[in-house]
Amino acid sequence: PGDLPPARFGTGGVLFSMCLSLVLVVATVSAVNLALPDLAVDLGASNTSLTWIADGYTVALAALVLPFGAVGDRIGRRRLLVLGTLVFGAAALAAALSDTAAALIAWRTVMGVGAAMIMPGTLSTITGAFPPEQRAKGVATWAGFAAAGAILGLLAAGALLEVWGWPSIFVASAGVAVLAAVAAAVMAPETREAHPHRFDWLGGTSLAVAVGALVFAVIEGAEQGWTATPTLVAVALTVVGVGAYVVGGLRHESPLLDPRLFALRGFRTGGLTIVAQFMALFGFFFVGLQYLQLLLDYSPLHSAVALIPVAVVVLPTALVTPAIVRRAGLGP
How far apart are CA 84 and CA 76, in angstroms? Predict the structure, then answer.
């Protein structure tokens, strides 16, 4: 918008601060996977508990990222992002002190709430602060760090686990959260929606229920069976949540995520592509890292280094993608 205050450190400062916050959120998804063998021994965690330690964070993030995005549009995206980093950092410190799997799952979930407060502001601040001619490059850089951040998290976690135990991962995450809060407060401008619409409470609630219930069904279905009562109840809640989201979204004047968007081929294709990419990437991290450590006897750092080719490919590719699209078109 034309009345946006200039960024104190220019677009470079905005990009640095937003990508730092983004890497904090994404790296935390992958980093804990490297510590799963140690967590199983130290906390006596079962395979289901290990799955929830990894996924409690991502469930909270996925369920709440859209509602918090709308909140940021109203109260200020930078303000919500900084608050999210403080929630994230405090929960990470508490997670480092956990002595049971249940406690760690709970604090990881609170970290996911903080991450949901951080995540939407990282991209919307870039698109709002960058001039139109630089916006594609800024978004491409953001996308590259979204993928490469997973490997950066693995490398940092691997280095920490070579010297200290699994709590060091959470202590380091808290430290980075403080740095991200300071960087955002100093380098990024405050942005918000000029004329916010009525908040879509039904859309936010139904999406959160649908996402949470779906992930619960997938995790518990593999453990208890796909015809077990908890699994079937979770599937039913997913269906009800999606139905309420669609019906409410079609009736609301400004839905949280307009169901009509899924009728657009480009939006639908892009969404499915992102889902497939992240299912493959993080699903592989969860299984592959345990395979490297438990069967091939790699150290945590060696396991992380073994996955560097992912980042070596994805970050440069993201940076050159806008130029490729201009020359060849989006479809190819």
Answer: 12
Cβ burial 138-155 (10 Å sphere, 16+ → b, else e): bbbbbbbbbbbbbbbbbb
Q: State pLDDT tens for residues 146-185.
A: 777 877 888 888 889 888 888 999 999 999 999 999 998 8
DSSP string, 225-258: -TTSHHHHHHHHHHHHHHHHHHHHHHHSSS-SS-
The fraction of the chain above a pLDDT of 70, given in percent, is 97
Give dist(CA 320, CA 332) in Å, integer. Answer: 14
Instruction: Note if the pTM is more than 0.85.
Output: no
Half-sphere exposure of 103 (CA within 13 A, CB side): 12
Query: Could you tell me which residues come within 8 angstroms of residue 90 by beta carbon, excluding any fewer than 6 positions away?
Result: 174
CA dist., res. 331 & res. 266, Å (int): 9
Q: How many Cα atoms occupy the beta-carbon half-sphere of 163 within 13 Å?
A: 6
DSSP letter at 259 equals: G
Strand (E) or helix (H) holding 189: none
Q: State how far the Cα of 325 lies from the Cα of 29, in Å rounded to an integer.
A: 30
Residue type (1 letter), 323: A
The encoded tokens of residue 98 equal: 């956990």
Nearest to 243 by CA among 213, 265, 221, 269: 213
